[in-house]
Specification:
The chain is of the alpha/beta class. The protein has a single domain (2-264), classed as 3-Layer(aba) Sandwich (Protocatechuate 4,5-dioxygenase, Chain B), CATH 3.40.830.10. It is 36% helix and 24% strand. It contains nine helices and ten strands. The strands form two sheets. Strands 6-3-7-2-8-1-10-9 form an eight-stranded mixed beta sheet, sandwiched between helices. Helix 6 packs across helix 8 (214-220). The termini are close together.
Length: 266
């Protein structure tokens, strides 16, 4: 059963051994991530389904890691912090089965696919007080937004077949073009995109998110919109409110943290 849902950013700089002297600039971001970790503990979550933009993204299929044990590290960021975590293979199989019934192509990827930082950065905080938690690691695709929303609906149906408390996490940063120092260069559309998306989330305007102007999305240089759309599909049969816990953009990238407070779970 789905008990918890959130949006999380994934800058490796949030990891203390990587961020070091920059941690003060994202103090509120780190505080909010630790609060989410406590919420996962409070809800007695046993499995986190997490969608990353940085996994094995395919043009026409959603990718689900099928390894029994998944591993990853931050060596590419100059840090030897590593992670090993158990997969919830029952949930993986159910997501694939229900997705195929809904005509959504999914592919199970194997042992040679390591966990990426889009998965590991949120997990660093979310499993801090939950060391035995399992995950399901998913990468989105380049299919249209509607298919991603439908995939979220399939994931929700799959969580209802599992007799345990499930969390869903949409991993993704917002615009990468907020200022002149931004990694993808500056665009005034970056701030516009972030403000619009947060407003639509707070007002539960799902249709507005699904129909965001494609040029605006492209100019913003975001990486998390498809993750968020899958999450919105997952919540589509539930009543909820969105609580923005933190939003910062000190390095030219928008870091949004928010929890969807579930008011009714069928």
């Amino acid at each position: 059963m789905l008990k918890f849902a959130s949006i999380c950013p994934h800058p490796p700089i949030m990891i203390p051994s990587i961020g070091k002297n920059h941690l003060a600039e994202i103090k509120s971001t780190i505080r909010a991530m630790n609060e989410l970790g406590n919420r996962v503990k409070e809800e007695e979550i046993s499995t986190i389904v997490i969608i990353s933009p940085h996994g094995p993204v395919q043009m026409d299929a959603m990718s689900i890691n099928g390894s029994e044990i998944m591993k990853g590290n931050f060596l590419q960021f100059g840090d030897d912090t590593s992670m090993k975590i158990e997969n919830n293979l029952d949930l993986v199989r159910n997501i694939k089965k229900i997705s195929e019934i809904k005509n959504i192509t999914t592919e199970i990827v194997g042992d040679d696919i390591p966990l990426d930082h889009g998965i590991m950065v949120p997990l660093y905080f979310l499993k801090k007080h939950n060391p035995n938690i399992k995950i399901v690691s998913i990468a989105f695709s380049y299919l249209d937004f509607e298919k991603h929303f439908e995939f979220g609906e399939a994931i929700y149906e799959a969580t209802e077949t599992i007799n345990e408390n499930i969390a869903f996490v949409a991993s993704g940063d917002l615009s990468h073009r907020l200022n002149l120092e931004a990694p993808s260069g500056y665009s005034p559309k970056g701030k516009e995109f972030d403000e619009l998306l947060i407003k639509y989330l707070e007002n539960n305007e799902v249709s507005e998110i699904m129909n965001l102007n494609s040029e605006l999305v492209e100019d913003a240089g975001e990486c998390g919109l498809r993750s968020i759309i899958i999450l919105l599909g997952t919540l589509s049969s539930l009543e909820y409110t969105f609580q923005k816990m933190s939003y910062k953009g000190p390095f030219g990238v928008g870091y949004l943290i928010g929890e969807f407070k579930l008011l009714k779970n069928n």
